[in-house]
Structure formats: structure tokens, C-alpha cells
Amino acid sequence: MTIKKPHSHSFSRSKHFFNQGFTLVEIIVGLVISTLAISLVAIIIFPLLTRSVEPIFQIRAAEIAQSVLDDVMSRRYDETTPLGGSPICSAATIPCTSVASLGIDVGESHRGTFDDVDDFHHFCNADNDIEDVFGSNLSASGFTRGYTFRVCVGYDGNYNGVINQAAELNAKLITVTVTPPSQASPVVISVYRSNY
């Protein structure tokens, strides 16, 4: 019996080793292309992720604004207006609160003690933390964290949007502004409260 020798390859072992893999140029080109692709994804996709939260902030801000507005509208028109709304205040009968006196009255320290619409004008000059009716800060934690609000009240009896004209005691323009955290736009709701 004869034993055959295996066929030898036409190239040596060391030559075969150098013919496998990528060259340095191919590796550098691959890295550049990968870097460009990752950068493109980061530039296009990641800003969209941060903007996807904005509608949630807007919805919460609208809910807070509506809640504050409901609280404002539940109060009587003026400090001098009796419960039930009659007789109405006017220049001829019972005088309405003067423009300079809009805001809180003696003994009113928080929303729970406010008794008329213009008491909320106290919250007009600066952004205020969200509070409950007892004046406790709700903006420090939970659902209203980072939200602020303003409530501005002024006379606008001819409904033209220009407030605090002395002869226009028939209505008050109430504007509630709630500013959400981060880059979301503020929500502004304005309504009129008639003198009745």
C-alpha cells in the first residue's frame, strides 16, 4: 500500500496571512463614514426627542391655567359687589374698586381668602409658583414642578383689550399665563367677567 502525500499549496503560509483583513486605508474610510452617519442621526433625531415632551408640558400648562381661571371666575365681580351680584357697582351707585386698588385687600393673604376677581391681580407682577388655595407651594414637586403662573386683572368695559380705562367699569379682563418648565411656550388664556 502506498501512502500519498497531501498536495502542498502554491503559496506559503506567511503570504496567506497578509492577504486577509482590511487595509489601514479601508479602516480609516470606514470609521469616517460611521462617524458621519452617527453625527447625522444625532443632529436629526435627538432634537426631535426633546421636542416630543413639549406637547405634554403644553397640555399640563393648559390644565393648570384652566384650574386657576375656574378659581378666579368663582369669585364675585368686585369687593363692593354684594353676594348675588346686585346692585352692581358703578360710578353712579356703589363705586367699584379703583384701578390703583386692584389686588388683595386687608386680611387676604392667599387664594383661599380672596373674595373677588381683582384680588388675583396680586399675582400679576411676577411669575409665581403654583399654589393651592391655602398658599402652599405646589411647584416644588409632583405634577406642577417647574411651572409658574400670572393672573392679571383690569377694567375693560368696551372689550377692546386695553385695560384699566377708568370709565370702563362694565367688565374686567382676566388674563392667566402659565409658563411650563424647559423650552415650552407659555399658555395664555383671557376671559371677560361682566359686572353683574
What is the fold's blueprint, element by element?
Blueprint (H helix, E strand, L loop, with lengths): L12 H6 L5 H28 L2 H20 L54 E2 L18 E8 L15 E9 L7 E8 L2
Antiparallel strand pairs: 1-2, 2-3, 3-4
Describe the structure.
The protein has a four-stranded antiparallel sheet, with helices on one face. The chain is rod-shaped. By secondary structure, the protein is α+β, with helices and mostly antiparallel strands. The longest helix has 28 residues, at 24-51. β3 (171-179) and β4 (187-194) form a beta hairpin. It starts with 12 loop residues before the first helix and ends with a strand. The protein is 28% helix and 14% strand. It folds into two domains: 23-51; 54-194, no CATH class.
Structural features:
alpha+beta, 196 residues, 2 domains, 4-stranded antiparallel β-sheet, 3 helices
